[in-house]
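Hello forum,

I keep getting stuck at the same step: I have a sequence, I want structure tokens, and every attempt I make locally crashes halfway through. Rather than fight my setup again tonight, could one of you with a working pipeline run this one for me? It's a single chain of 508 residues.
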Amino acid sequence: MNWMNRKHFLIGLGAGIFLSLGVIIGLILAANEGRLTSGQSGPSSGPSSSPRMAETIAAPPMDQGFVPVAKATTPAVVNISTTRVIKNPSGAPMTPFSEDPFFRQFFGDEFYRQFEIPKERREQSLGSGVIVDPNGLIVTNNHVVAKADEIKVLLGDKREFKGKVVGTDPKTDVAVVKINAKDLPTIPWGDSDKLQVGEYVLAIGNPFGLNQTVTMGIVSAVGRANVGIAEYEDFIQTDAAINPGNSGGALVNVRGELIGINTAIFSQSGGYMGVGFAVPSDMVKSVMDSLVKSGKVVRGWLGVSIQDVSPDLAKQFALPEAKGAVVTDILENSPAAKAGLQQGDVIVSFDGAPVDNTGMLRNRVAQTPIGKKVQVGVIRDKKEKELEVLIAEQPKEISRGQEEGPGTPDEEVSTALSGIEVRDLSPNLVQRYGLSKSDKGVVITQVDQGSAAADSGLREGDLVVEINRQAVKSVKDYDRLAAKVGKQDTVLLLVNRQGRNSYFAIKP
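Reply #2:
Ran it on my machine without issues. Output:
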């Protein structure tokens, strides 16, 4: 065979092999496409044929994107608009000459009206909510409906209902709202404990009033605590775009399951910067069930003060890694004391699940049913030990920061400042309460109804600047000065409210 014939032979052979491979690959792709199509046809037809209940669906083929998930879940995400009337009983003018008849005659009434504070003004805000029961039960954020005088719920089909608050829990920023409707679309609950970093998620809500907006991202982190948004924090962090108005909306996985309620963003501009937070569905469902059942959140209680295990502490306690929670104090007659826990024990597991840090333990204890016996794994004197603890209900007098957290677990003495919860300023709190970045003090995140503080006029969002003429720059300052207040002492607070300072004398 000469050179030219050999060349033509090789070219023909290569072409034949290439065509054969093409036919084989085509058959494989056709078979895969058939499997994907048949696997998707059942679940995708469910929501359209039965709008009452969104079922868990199969992961969609990539050529369809997240269309089936969006179609199944968006009808259950609602727009929540609230109206709040802020009253100024005095209607006091802002100039000392306003009440002088001579000046009023000279300048006229119209001139002075522009300086007078209106006797009342209406504040409106927008948020989102998720229908979790076909009979009109909706979960959202506490800060979406807090202090609202009127709540309107707009469904995806444009129907509008008046909403009624079933219960709120500022400590997790969760609230439950009820509307008078039936046969509503819902989103099924997902298991947020099984969520893994890197999973695709969709955030659904009403950013800037744009109803049922869907954005896509991944789970950036789980178990985020110490963010400064709520008291009990176990946030899902995501880079799905979350903006003002998304609060209370749904975070769903690719199977169309509710795995979180969008709560806040970390932003230096007020807009999306790739860091958003959602309350995990397991925590939301626990809080919702308690609010619906009893109108309040009943939390489990262990009765210890704890701290995180640092690398240095891990060496001192001969631990293999810096995980767990070190018991620093135990309250007398508490479940922990009765079970035999001791100061210096390192809690490494609770109810069969490992404990990595104090935040994790605190959340798990709080969500444990009252009266349940749980196994608590500890390391004591370099040896592993298991204790059985009967979980009790968290006492009402337990103060902020002492519920399975750092601090001294002594019982709180009721004073004029009882019933007030404060937090250090953070970008999220500044945005939530409409504060200024230059503001100083600690922000009030909750005022118990019926407390002396509530009776005096203090409310959520107020900024405490001074206690008894002494500056308050942090929660540490607040706690230090509050500790000096006696049971019968009247307390003088300087409070910044919407940029204006006012004194409040609180009598116990």
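Residues 164 and 261 are 19 Å apart (CA to CA). If your local run keeps crashing, start a new thread with the error log.
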